[in-house]
Amino acid sequence: MKQYAIIGMGRFGTSVAKTLYEMGYEVLGIDSDEDRVQDAVDFVTHAVTADSTDENVLKALGIRNFDVVVVAIGADIQASILTTLILKEQGVKQIVVKAQNELHGKVLHKIGADKVVYPERDMGVRVAHNLISPNILDYIELSPEYSMVEIVANEKMVGKTLAESDIRRKFGCTVMAIKTGDEINISPMAHDRIKQGDILVVVGKNDNLQELEEQA
To answer: Is 163 helix (H, G, I), strand (E, B) or coil?
Structure first.
């Protein structure tokens, strides 16, 4: 089970942390504001008041042991950049950072951020699902129980027909469409074959989709 650390418990960080926690993952929430940390205790595994620009503090928290660290610091661009640098130096496996603008994003990429997200384009829920599997391109909640995902066909699916991939029986989800380049096959048939690079549009219950995502 992957472990996640979220640095910065503002609206964006809270959304990512809460979604991951509700999906059953271990989440450490970090913020320099004690009130924000107190607000987060109900939807993270652990919540800590700490200065993420202090490398000794992050080392003491064992930050390098987390599979993914999300830097969701708000308006303080300097703290965002410095935190990202420290995480990189400490050997964090995957660093995802929220950027304020394109220039900020370019700097983050240059200093080693693995993924840069922009809150105006990437809602916290969608980012959380993408963290679970990089093959998940999009995630849309249709209702509290059902959602739709766009997923890149993995090596287990490529070359098989829909019937052979058996997504419906294995995961209880329905493939609504298959995108091949600029073409889209609406309501594909059981004998339609999945090709390399195909994108499957899948609908199902959230719990079932989570199982599919984890194997994507």
So the answer is: helix
Token pair for 134: 């990089």
pTM comes to: 0.68
Burial class (CB in 10 A: 0-12, 13-18, 19+), 27: buried
Q: pLDDT: is 175 or 141 the higher one?
A: 175
Q: Would you state the structure tokens that stand for residue 129, as one six-digit string?
A: 């699902």
In sign, the C-alpha dihedral spanning 76, 82, 85, 86 is negative
Residue (of 25, 99, 88, 22) closest to 55 by Cα position = 88
- End-to-end CA separation in angstroms for the chain: 15
What is the arithmetic mean of pLDDT over 76-95? 96
Calpha distance 45→29 (Å, rounded): 8
Q: Are 203 and 176 in contact (CB under 8 A)?
A: yes
Q: Which residue has the tokens 């829920």?
A: 125
- pLDDT classification of 213: cutoffs 50, 70, 90: confident
User: Which amino acid is present at 95?
Assistant: I
Distance CA 51, CA 79 (A): 9
